[in-house]
Amino acid sequence: QVQLVESGGGLVQAGGSLRLSCAASGRTFSTYGMGWFRQAPGKEREFVAATSWSGANTYYTDSVKGRFTISRDNAKNTVYLRMNSLKPEDTAVYYCAATTLVFPRENSVYDYWGQGTQVTVSS
Predict the structure, then answer these.
(1) Cα separation, 120 vs 1, whole angstroms
(2) Which terminus of the chain has fewer CB atoms gathered within 10 Å of its CB, N or C?
(3) pLDDT tens-digit series, residues 17-57
(4) Residue 5 forms beta bridges with which residues?
């Protein structure tokens, strides 16, 4: 069982930056692939980024490539999402998720989800 708690969301102007954090409970964090997803009002949840167990492999949806960076610190049981050059269309609730897959992607099955953190980008 893994519990995930996101933090770091907020209101930022377009072009600004935020860093989201996702703290995980349990001593087996390093054996979970981790992903970030987001859901905007009236839209379906969409994949944003994923990282492998070690953090050596990362994967992004096209719309955030070059702007967002996913990373993890297994010693701190935490995964991060650094978001630069934010756009109004990045406004959404951001969720982190955990999977037992070593190299997760957008269509992987994620077993555990956090409660989400709101990111609002003003124009």
Answers:
(1) 31
(2) N
(3) 999 999 999 778 989 999 999 999 999 999 999 999 999 99
(4) 23
**Would you put residue 49 in left (φ > 0), alpha (ψ -120 to 50) or beta?**
beta
Q: Give the C-alpha separation, 35 to 42, whole Å.
A: 22
The closest of 105, 103, 86 to 37, measured between CA atoms, is 105
Instruction: Tokens for 115, please give them.
Output: 């409660």
Query: Contact, 77 vs 25, CB < 8 A?
Result: yes
Q: What is the DSSP track for the chain?
A: ---EEEE--EEEETT--EEEEEEE-SS-GGGSEEEEEEE-TTS--EEEEEE-SSSS-EEE-GGGTTTEEEEEETTTTEEEEEE-S--GGG-EEEEEEEES-SS--TTSPP-EE---EEEEEE-
Separation of alpha carbons 101 and 123, rounded Å: 38
List, for residues 56-72, the tens digit of each pLDDT value.
999 999 999 999 999 99
